[in-house]
Amino acid sequence: MVTMTLRSRRADPPRWPVWPFDALLWTLFLGPILSPLLRASELPLLAESGVLARELLATYVCPTPERSLLLLGLPMAVCARCWGATIGLWVARIVVGQFTRTDEGLAPGVRGAAGPLWAALWWYRGLPWAARLALAALPFLLWPLEIVGHDAGWWFAPLGLILLNGALAGFAAGLCFCAAWPGLWAPRHTQ
């Protein structure tokens, strides 16, 4: 009589292609830049599409369109804070891309001062999704504080500070999105 032991092999989690995520990030990054460039071209169809992009984003997405950076003398489609958020999303995507380059979770050649960053990313990745979402939402609490303080005349925040505020929130949101995208940031391997 032969006895067999069956081992259930855990199925690999589904992996989504990364190109839609990257395409969305490129659209978010380049869209606000293209709007003033299209308007500056003064070509009939292109200029109107640039105006349409500015009006739609300034009306429905951006909380403070009057705080936009200027490009060729025309305001970008979103404020400095919103565009900073897209920069933060890209920084998070690049960091996670470097982080997941090898199975050990360390990019080739990373040593010394980068160690705590990788340890923090491993810690973050090990959190439950609700905790990651809560941590990603925290930097966005600075946005209403800055907007109310500016509108009430308590302070005037320069565009560089607003851009940095947006980049911080975008980085936190980017880490959350990268962790949620199936296959982009693999979970810790357990032996």
Structure explained in plain terms:
It is built from seven helices and two strands; from the N terminus they run ααββααααα. By secondary structure, the protein is mostly helical. The protein has one domain (about 20-180). A two-stranded antiparallel ribbon has the order 1-2. Mean pLDDT is about 85; it is low at about 105-115.
Mean pLDDT: 83
Biggest sheet layout: 2 strands, antiparallel
Contiguous helical run count:
7
Ranges where pLDDT stays below 50 over 5 or more residues in a row are: 105-113
Strand order of the largest sheet: 1-2
Chart the SSEs and their pairings:
Blueprint: H1 19-41, H2 44-60, E1 70-71, E2 74-75, H3 80-99, H4 115-125, H5 129-137, H6 142-151, H7 159-180
Antiparallel strand pairs: 1-2
Name a few traits of the molecule.
191 residues; mainly alpha; two-stranded antiparallel ribbon; 7 helices; 2 strands; elongated
Compact summary:
With 191 residues, this protein is mainly α. The chain has helices spanning 19-41, 44-60, 80-99, 115-125, 129-137, 142-151, 159-180; strands at 70-71, 74-75.
